[in-house]
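Retro notes - structure team

What went well: the batch runner handled both jobs without manual restarts.
What didn't: labels got mixed up in the shared folder, which is why I'm recording both outputs here explicitly, each with its sequence directly above its tokens.

Job 1
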Amino acid sequence: MTVSETLKKEGNSFFAEGDYVSALVKYTEAICANGAQPILYSNRAATFLKLESWENAVLDCERGLNLLTDESNETIKLKLLWRKSIGLRELQRLHEAFEVIQIALKINPNSEYLKNEYSLISQKLKAANSISNTKESSSDQENGEDIIDIEITEVDKIPDEFYTKDGVSTENAKSNIDSYEKVESSTSTIKSRMNDSHDFPMNPSLQYLLSLQDRFKTDLVSCNEYLVKLPVEAYRNIFAVSGIDPEVLNMFLKACIALLEQHKLEYKGEITEKLKLFKTLPRFSLTSVFVDSGLIDQLSKLFRDRLGEDFMSYW
């Protein structure tokens, strides 16, 4: 048994016990050991769904789907599509969720759990269209015409709680968020400085931040400054419930290193402000495990030599 298979097995055990945070750790370690297995992303996506980290679940499903080959197990593909649909539905991206579940049903039109998900999305789309039509009395009521009615039935094979938020507590996450003292920063100054960058959004999505990994290759300086200048509220809006994404955290730390190495000490306040926020977000102690130790060593030295501070006090 390979290292990744052993870790996956351990993750499965934790998942079955309802210890989703530990399962998340094991699946992430398995991905680090062998990131070419779609099933690992599928399993981690299921864990993210249990933790109500909808966007991370969707992203993992997309990663898994991109790794599929013609020889890949059809069941894995269906589970990735199904879980992606659930994540999109919870994010209220209903039309995208509807398209995804239709793709899955074309592969296996007899799947009860896929038909159940299709029904849930159809119901939500109809409700959304009904509200829209009520507000717009002159509407032609074209929305929803293509939605197919399917009787919603109970499916014994799929736990009810998988479709709901029951049993998944975010109380600790919310208390962590509430405990963070909001910093009254000079928003207008930040905005004016942000506008100097090249078409970087002030309120990005997680998917946009992750896409910066490709842009770094051609616009390194602007990307570094963008990540550091981005207002605290923008990070809070994305990561308040799910916690900071490991890849985004690594990019941010690399940006800090680049700026401090260039003696751009004027960014000290913005760097430390974000680090204070990240530390209060849910599961930060877990996420920090996956940060390259080399980055921590570099920042510790730069904070000491350039800023006269202890980096670990922010970590």
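Job 2
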Amino acid sequence: MKKSAMNRIFGAVNIALQKLCTILCLLKDLLSVLPPKKCY
């Protein structure tokens, strides 16, 4: 494999992970804002 291809794949994975973390943080914020229905 060429180095550029590896870099491109690594970059794509990095971006995907960042998006995933952002979505998880947003979900956590939404859940904390919503009133708790019952004890889970």
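One thing worth noting from job 2: The longest helix spans residues 3-33.
We'll revisit the folder naming next retro.
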